[in-house]
Amino acid sequence: MWRRGFIILLLSFPLWADGIIDQQLPDFYQQLKQKQTFSDAWESGKFQTVQKWRQHGRNLLRDSLLWPDEPVDFSPRLIRTEARDGYKAEIWSVQLTLQSRVNLMLLTPDLPKPLPAVLLLHDHGARFDIGKEKWIKPFKNDQKLASAQQWADKYFSGNFVGDELARQGYVVLAADTFGWSERGPIAYDAQQAMASNLYLLGRSLAGMAAYEDLRQVEFLKQLPQVDKNRLAVIGFSMGAFKAWQLAALSDDIKATVSVAWMNSYQYLMQPGNNLLKGQSSFYMLHPGLSAKLDIPDVASLAAPSAMLLINGAKDKLMPREGVEYAYARMAKVWQAYGASEKFSGKIWPQYGHEFSAEQQQQAFNWLAAQLAK
After folding, report:
1. How far apart are CA 373 and CA 300, in angstroms?
2. Does 35 score more than 90 pLDDT?
3. Of the four listed, 62, 156, 243, 373, which is most buried by Cβ atoms within 10 Å?
4. Sheet holding 101-109: strands in order across?
């Protein structure tokens, strides 16, 4: 069921799919690609200090969201609760924005408070019947349980990462991005129409998703059981994009784990890549931003806060050459802050597009070190 405030009109637009753009407009397309110099990157040399660059870049990113700050009372309502092994699971209904009232899943350990907290941002995966349930195990007798377990088996070595984090002593929060689970499910080929409608309203689908993530941070930090000085975010795939983007927008995020989404436009703008196909890419495309900042430039706006990037060498969606290029570009920003130890990027040669148990353990160990008192 679609939430109030959004009407989806199926507009007819030509789809530049899988290499067609290269076949139809090779000279025009290549000329534009050659002009993509990322004029406002730290490496441009235009900025006297990395701090001034960061403020400039953050302003560019925030303006590109096309989503004004519209504070609204969360007006939380507890919907359901369930006791689990060493922690409590809850579903809260929250007025996240003026347009959207959203159900959140919240896990709270049975430990003395306040506690460090982790916001989990789910992937795309062209699987819309589950969203927050990809990270946190659904409640007993929930019809989504089978789908969620199937997803965990496919990408997370059978684990529900959110539940494991709660067992380790973290407050955990997860919500559905618009179009998933209780906020959908959307049909795959309706994503482009949804993005078009928001553009016609002077807004952006990617901006809406980013702004809602910011609001989740605000909700999390005001919870009495949360230590607001020890907040982290973990994202997988599309959620990984949203994780480093959130850290780039917010000083509240002290540590970021981004799994299976980092590259450079020059490596992703190739025939066959999802970024050129429309549909899912509209959750990650901010109008005009890529003329000034490359992907790793945007992620580097999170510096000098701690960031761990995890990628698999066998990931067909993220070319290894692009991952290596992005890591090197980002490392220079943390180095400029004198905080090289806060940045870590690892490519696992044996893994593809996944967040395996071994990778999870690396993330858990790293997170514990970053959020230690």
Report:
1. 25
2. no
3. 243
4. 77-84, 87-95, 101-109, 171-175, 115-121, 226-236, 253-259, 306-312, 343-348
Q: C-alpha distances in angstroms, 204 versus 45, 54, 107?
A: 30, 23, 31
- Distances in Å between the Cα of 188 and the Cα atoms of 130, 192, 239, 278 are 14, 9, 17, 11
- In angstroms, the CA 294 to CA 304 distance is 18
What is the distance between the alpha carbons of residues 1 and 355, in angstroms, rounded to a whole number? Answer: 30
Query: Model-level pTM?
Result: 0.92
Paired with 350 in beta bridges are none
- Give the number of other Cβ atoms within 10 Å of residue 6's Cβ: 15
Contact 220, 36 (CB under 8 A): no
Contact 103, 78 (CB under 8 A): no
How many helices (DSSP H) and strands (DSSP E) are in the chain?
12, 9
- Predicted confidence band at 250 (pLDDT cuts at 50, 70, 90)? very high
d(CA 178, CA 214): 14
Residues in contact with 218: Cβ distance below 8 Å, sequence separation at least 6, in sequence order: none
**Closest residue by Cα to residue 254 from 321, 144, 170, 178:** 170
As a whole number of angstroms, the distance between CA 354 and CA 220 comes to 27
